[in-house]
Amino acid sequence: xRLSVENISLTLxxxxxxxxxxxxxxxxxxxxxxxxxxxxxxxxxxTLLKVIAGILLQDAGTVRxxxxxxxxLAPHKRRxxxxxxxxxxxxxxxxxDNVAYPLKMAGASRREREARxxxxxxxxxxxxxxxRAVQTLSGGQAQRVALARAIVARPSALLLDEPFSGLDxxxxxxxxxxxxxxxxxxxxxxxxxxxxxxxxxxMSDSIVALDGGRVAQTGEPQRLYQTPATAKIAACFxxxxxxxxxxEGKVFRVAKLRIPAPDLADGPAxxxxxxxxCRVAPDIAGGRGYEPAGEAVVRCGVYAGNTYLARxxxxxxxxxVPVERPLEPGAIASVRIAPESRFVFPA
Amino acid sequence: xVVHSLKARxxxxxxxxxxxxxxxxxxxxxxxxxxxxxxxxxxxxxxFLGMYEPTLGYxxxxxxxxxxxxxxxxxxxxxxVSSAIALVGGVLLSAALCAVRQTRxxxxxxxxxxLMCAHILVVLFMVSLFAGSGLVTRLLFHLGLVSSPxxxxxxxxxxxxxxxxxxxxxxxxPFVAFCTVTLMSHVSDRYGExxxxxxxxxxxxxxxxxxxxxxxxxxxxxxxVFAFAFGAYEVPFLLGxxxxxxxxxxxxxEFQNPDILNRCVAMALNGIMAVVTSAAAAAYFAxxxxxxxxx
Lengths: 347, 295
Known about the structure:
The complex is a heterodimer of chains A (about 350) and B (about 300).
Chain A (H helix, E strand, L loop, with lengths): L2 E10 L6 E11 L4 E5 L6 H9 L6 E6 L2 E2 L10 E4 L11 H11 L4 H14 L15 H13 L5 E5 L7 H18 L2 E6 L2 H7 L2 E6 L2 E6 L1 H6 L4 H6 L3 E9 L2 E4 L2 E4 L6 E8 L3 E3 L10 E13 L4 E7 L2 E7 L8 E6 L4 E5 L1
Parallel strand pairs in A: 3-8, 3-9, 6-7, 7-8
Antiparallel strand pairs in A: 1-2, 1-4, 4-5, 9-10, 11-12, 11-14, 12-13, 14-20, 15-19, 16-17, 16-19, 17-18
Helix pairs in contact in A: 2-3, 2-4, 3-4, 4-5
Chain B lengths: L1 H41 L14 H7 L4 H32 L4 H13 L2 H12 L4 H8 L19 H36 L4 H30 L2 H6 L7 H10 L5 H33 L1
Helix pairs in contact in B: 1-11, 2-11, 3-7, 3-8, 4-7, 5-7, 7-8, 8-11, 10-11
């Protein structure tokens, strides 16, 4: 199913504390594609998911399934699967009854419900768990049950609200693989809310980046990673430093650091420098792909496991650079930055 | 020096729970003394009258009274019917408050004001509405729905006890709603939302998710109302029929008898009430334990 969201706006709260949560949001999730809604806390991601599910009513705009508006449909008539961040397994039902619940609501026979629930539990690697009370499940197992429950009735689309945020990193990786496998097997149009940019990069066919209730950028993961539209998007992919400075003559300047900004007019600006593309001169004196970016004073160095990190001072701000050996505080470091790891935006 | 202060801190921490419990322990102690005194009086022990020998005589006298069975039956009927109606009404009121997101004014009118009113005030209010000269009866008479103001079943003394039931329902529906609305609202927001995304209509959400998850709170509210309606005397005393008298009314009349020895009879009657309300309390704690295990 092709899911499109067109010009959705929504204000929540009473008259005194009304707050615009979504502002003219539009995007399309193609049939069978995996789309991530990426943004920091308060960006409006979960609210948008609830609007798509019909739980919240938008003030303006339309949600369409395969081109047809579903604005007049109550949540229970939209044929969607939903996985909540806090799982929400029904505590008065066992695992099998939880998984079979959507089928029961759809009027399926008991035999059909049992067979399909058993099949789904096997597919999420929980065979034999049907009679267990949900209170006895671990976090990962509960999230698997929630996933099975969301797809058991063959929904037209699957919506996931930060489904892995409560899990350990190792469990998250397993769950991501499981979700992607099920999504591809079922060819399910999937929209997942996440604040984890790496997760969005790894799992998505397309990403919708939200900021302050607006769409900041949409596109394939490579596009958002390589040509981010805003400083926030640039900064969300991995470890990076953000520096405030001025653009003068197509060059961003802060302290003695210099970063090319060919498309920007003179004025205040923000530079985002990804750690992976930033080095100091002694480490890669003539390294290919790294361009000189001026000098900075070493404030301190920290041990970070597989490397050391040098904190360089730039007018009170910090540029963090991976280094091969700890640098002396007060030393002057020549900074080099790979062009694909530096971004400058108007402030 | 350090060891001493550490020991003092340890002792302080160990003693803290007992010190905090002390006020409650005093209250419980007074209550238990009253109960023990009442039980003893039921067995004819009244030291202030020089009666020290226990006897089953007063219990035998009470249990062989010709009006006892009818009184117990009437009290059970009042307690059961009023708590059942209060339960259904409370669930509906609670569901309605959840559906409209219980605005402050609605909550005030529907729950808080009825809860604050004393039973005796509600009795006066019911009488002013439904007695022979009451507002409702006169209105029905003017509408031609009853042949005379006295044609309406009397709120005072009617054998069906409908006046007592109406008073309890008016008071206890908000009580049940008060006991359940927070839980129901939480369940409805959290699990109801989930069920709706799985194809459950609002009615099916209510019956398959909300109601089962609120069952414990509802059973507890029912038991509280039942025990109260069974043991309270003022409403049946004011609105109840001459015969059969509700058990608490019977006990009250015996207690008020000029012959002080009748106090032993009253306490034996109270003993019967204590058995029934203790059963309700036991059921209440069984529900609590079950809920605790589930968590």
